[in-house]
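Glycoside hydrolase, Lipomyces kononenkoae. Tokens?
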Amino acid sequence: MSFSVQQKAANFSSTARSVEEYVWSKASGAGGAGSDRNRPTTSDLPLYKDKPLNRSFSRRSQRERSIWIIIGIVVGIVVYFLYRIVSPVDNERKSSWLFGRRGASAKIWKDRQNQVREAFLESWNAYEKYAFGKDIYRPVAKTSRNMAPEGIGWIIVDCLDTMMIMNLEEPLSNAREWVANNLTYDQDYEVSTFETTIRMLGGLLSAHYLSGYDDMYLEKAVDLANRLLPAFDSATGIPYASVNLHTGKGVPSHDDGGASSTAEATSIQLEFKYVSKLTGEALYWEKAEKVIDIIDSAKAVDGLAPIFIMPETGTFRGSQIRLGSRGDSYYEYLLKQYLQTNSQELVYRQLYDEAMAGVKKYLIQKSKPTGLTYVAELDHGVDGALSPKMDHLVCFLPGNLALGSTAGYPLHIAQRTSWTITQASDMKLAKDLTRTCYEMYKVTKTGIAPEIVYFNTDPKVTEDISIKWQDAHNLQRPETVESLFVMWRITKDPIYREWGWDIFEAFKKNARLADGTGYTCLENVNEVPPKPRDNMESFWLAETLKYLYLLFEDDDSILALDKVVFNTEAHPLPKFNMQPLFKTGWARRGGSNQDSAPAPGAD
Ligand code: DMJ
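Tokens:
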């Protein structure tokens, strides 16, 4: 199977892709997303008539003109080379300045992108050799095992779209064959509702989209969505933490008094809504959006939702608030639900804006002594004390803030329209937090960030960041490179690419196994050489390497941020119009969905 994202990118602008279009494209053989039918042909281009030659010029004046043109060109060339010699370009670029700054730079980024592709291939090849089809791979021991009895494609399904984006034809063909012939979700096994939705359902939907609507992926996705649906059968519609894929029984969490995690319950909406769009069935849509209705009714203070919610009562459990584990993607999906349906559902924008105002009011702090901006936690609600702890997971936030600020458009374009104080302040916060997330890598001995850091608030202490031994591991997480990718696309500031390159080099140096069996998680990022924590996370392939690859891609029309939304596992899904089949089926108590002022990206 061959896939070229460059070709497909031209048609990603078809954001309102509908079932009808799908049927039409199959019937007409137009080739769906892979078709070139929207590209201008030469005959579409405007024609300019040649200017008539002015025959009244004398031969002498023509010669004088030619001489002046030649002198002009020579002077231009001399000035250009003088500028190149004295201009402050870095050494890498200077070494190839003869080839032109732009060309050399593009070449370097292409080469770096290729190195990321190589890292993916090395990880995948080792997995294919030692663990193919298994859910878990231990690259040091070269062993593997399944989670469900027959395996549920945990690694394969999660990385299908990365292979498509990287144009890896052979691995993709093997992976597709495995999915088509071996993968069944009809297994007597309890899966995490959230993890299975974002990784498996999201992975299949994205593979369907990027493959030019390959039916096989859609059939698997719909089967899985149907098996996950009983998770929503609680008294309120808040999904249970787990669900049995064969019996269809929803299972409350065995911990936390049966509460579901807020982030988990509220980060399945993009996937289920897209299933509705593809099948024309409203059920998935309704189940997914109902969750946000219940969360809103639970009345978070200033938009900051506690991290647990009870599925039977719809009330929050406890008052812990954070944007790290169990809180993070609630905020991410508020924004992305608004973006997914082409900025038509203002209620999600309103909720997102309230939440970001709450984040700024209560959680944003500066460390000592250098003043890094960080996001603190509240262990006892908004009236309790702040904890200066920050999970690496929080590093999704800068990218999300930038995305919310410009609705995915380049900064200079967004600034040209109505640029509000809130947009500017979100963008500033995005920049400050991106720097902090990068610092979380820079301060360690390996150059790789730990799972959790603490920021210093004591004026007598000299280091801004400290790491406890129990938090010093690295799980190959993607959030910082995710934000770097979004920041690069939106601002075009090359510093974000350079930071991404530093991070990739650190992984290559410290997490790559010398025998070529892949990349591993680490026990302690402050030990050199670090001891492996023998595991390869599926999101290493699905997210971390995908975002790095896209960070080093020059062509912004590939998975353009104003055309697609990435789910929280980095699976791109196209934006679409919800009419005529779907609508926002709920309204905030005491307010109308139409109340909000037009927000960035609103049509
Ligand atoms: C991924 O599964 C998703 O990004 C999720 O939102 C958070 N945890 C991991 C990656 O860190």
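Residues 101-131 form the longest helix (31 residues).
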